[in-house]
Amino acid sequence: MLRFMPVGDSMTIGSAGEHTWRYRMWQHLCATHGGPFKIVGPRETLYDQQAGAPVSYAYADPEFPRAHLAGWGEGWLHMAPLIEDAVREHRADVLLVSLGLIDLGFYTNAEQTAQNMAAFVEGARAANRRVRMVVLPVIPNVRARDDAPFAAEVARFNELLAKAVADLDTPGSPLLLASPPADWDIHGDTYDGTHPDASGEHKIAGAFAEAMWQAWGVGGPYCP
DSSP alpha helices (H): ranges in the chain? Predict the structure, then answer.
């Protein structure tokens, strides 16, 4: 049985009442994966924007397996110290990782963020030497549109991320860089310039799904 762990920031945990791209991925795997699988992780909640905390269980589909390792306002900086224990405890086989926007926006520059990404990979492999990882580049948001220095940091980090993925990839523990959605539209794919709406959820899930299908034969082509 393959055990998938979604890892991310506010775009991954989602808010009360949302489906999230995690849900779209689960639907995709249910339809295309030819064997048993499980969604795993140490957390289950959605973010409650009124409470200002991740305390909601109000998923749009109550049947969805809610496990994840994602947090509103958390990035590579926060997840790197957590990933070893999370992978070990939940026996994760595949990590689907969408991180970086928060780091670059509030905590670290591109070079420091890349260092935290490498520490994350090291921690995951310390728990499972054969763990597989798919990493999504940072998708520029409305701030990147309006803030040129921030946009430059995003572009620089995505360059460093691509290099790190190539350098850290091994046959025993493959590391994939997913292709960001080429037609991402901050007006049509988000509800606030950053967080995905239904269209954006499908595009993020599709990016992970296509990477796994093309590189590993896991699942199948993504069909919303």
Answer: 10-13, 21-32, 76-79, 83-90, 101-102, 110-127, 142-146, 148-168, 198-216
Q: Nearest 5°: CA angle at 165, between 11 and 210? A: 60
**pLDDT of amino acid 222:** 97
Q: CB-based burial of residue 209 (10 Å sphere; 0-12 exposed, 13-18 middle, 19+ buried)?
A: buried
Interacting residues of 146 by C-beta distance below 8 A, sequence separation 6+: none
Q: What is the pLDDT of residues 39-74, one digit of tens each?
A: 999 999 999 999 999 999 999 998 999 999 999 999
| pLDDT of the residue at 220 | 96
Domain assignments of the chain as residue spans, ordered by start: 2-216
Report d(CA 20, CA 195) in Å as an integer: 10
3-state SS, residue 97: strand
HSE, CB side, 13 Å, CA atoms: give it for residue 7. 33
pTM of the model: 0.97
CATH number of this structure's domain 2-216? 3.40.50.1110
Under a CB-based contact definition with an 8 Å cutoff, are residues 129 and 89 in contact?
no
> Strand 46-48 to strand 2-8: parallel, antiparallel, or no bridges (unpaired)?
unpaired
Q: Of 191, 170, 60, 162, whose CA–CA distance to 122 is shortest?
A: 170
* Diameter of the chain measured on Cα atoms: 46
C-alpha–C-alpha distance, residues 190 and 100, integer Å: 17
